Amino acid sequence: MIRWRTARVDAVRAEWPGAVEYAVTVFETGGGGRGAAAACRALGYVGLVGRAEPGDTVLLNVAALERGLGTGGLALVVAIPDRLPADPPPGPGHVVKARYTPLQAMVLGVDEQESPHHETLADADTIASMPVVTADLHSALPAVLAGLRAGRPGVRVAYVMTDGGALPAAFSRTVTGLREAGWLDACITVGQAFGGDLEAVTVHTGLLAARLVVGADVAIVAQGPGNLGTGTRWGFSGTSAGEAVNAAHVLGGRAIASLRVSEADARPRHRGLSHHSVTAYGRVALAPAEVPVPDEASPLARQVRRQAEQLCAGSAGRLRLVDVPTTGLDEALSVSPVPLRTMGRDLGTDRMAFVAAAVAGRRAADVLGRASNLCPD
């Protein structure tokens, strides 16, 4: 449950749209006792708690920080008691996210009755063959975009952020950097995730909004930062990648399954092709999808291809392996406007993790090219 602390704000360390990172001094231990002062970093979401100033007292949740969980080693600001934000102005919207928690937030869903897009989405039922790249980890997002833009630099892309990881989109510096660089046209937060350019109730309406409201050529579906895993076959939040394949198919999209791959993960279950991809695409996904694999001669690439062949062979024809050349992808990845990091590893220490995501983006670019030329696949 929550581990409460009080702290003093010492300085603003950084800020970006929707979030502020503070340097704070923590004074109070759990249970109401006073403990030795300790410095740490704390993150406040402006839309939820307002903006603190140096000298303010803040209430913190340090549960994940003290357990060493999560991304970034941060305490979270729960309230600024002496500087409560003003009530938002009256407006439309009744979609509640983080429901029935102390910090539930009410937003305007793109798909609800008060939305200006409700009429567009009310009876919408197709995304008209739009490529939908699905991925397990949030860290795949910039790599998929790098591969996609290498083939089609002017492509219009929407990121559909599911709620398996971080709920606030503002937690992702990656999304902020990609939006600022013009690599990403919109972030759509779905389910219990919130804070995107658009809010949607489900992955399905998120995909429909990507196509019909944003006008995206391609959608990328992945959870926010900080996925959850338990070391069991079924107990990980990345199963949502398989569910996204199903959503893309039922809406007439073309699912492209980005594989989770690693050459440096210390855990055997994630070396080569991760068991997350095997379960999500082999068992959770029930609809057709393409499975792009890096077409290069390295031993790891050959291993991943063999594992992907086994995955596809066990799908009764539902999954189709596609060899995608990697020429030029290292250069494309090297110019990413945001840092490439997965589980603390960068491009230099876990290259194949990012190349495997980039080939999914390159495959989506190929699909768009074939569609525009009216060529059969």
Characterization of this structure:
The structure is a single chain. With 377 residues, this protein is α/β, with parallel strands linked by helices. The chain has 2 domains: 4-79, OB fold (Dihydrolipoamide Acetyltransferase, E2P), CATH 2.40.50; 118-372, 3-Layer(aba) Sandwich (Rossmann fold). It has 11 helices and 19 strands. It has helices at 46-49, 63-67, 118-122, 140-151, 173-181, 203-212, 240-250, 275-284, 299-313, 329-334, 351-372, and strands spanning 4-16, 19-28, 34-45, 57-61, 75-79, 95-97, 105-107, 131-134, 157-162, 186-190, 198-200, 218-223, 254-257, 261-262, 272-273, 289-295, 319-325, 341-342, 345-346. Strands 11-10-9-12-8-13 form a 6-stranded parallel sheet, with helices on both faces. A 5-stranded mixed beta barrel has the order 1-2-3-5-4. Helix 4 crosses helix 11 and helix 7 packs parallel to helix 8 (275-284). The longest helix is centred in the C-terminal third of the chain and has 22 residues, at 351-372. The chain is globular and about 60 Å long. The protein starts with a strand and ends in a 5-residue tail after the last helix. The relative contact order is 0.13.
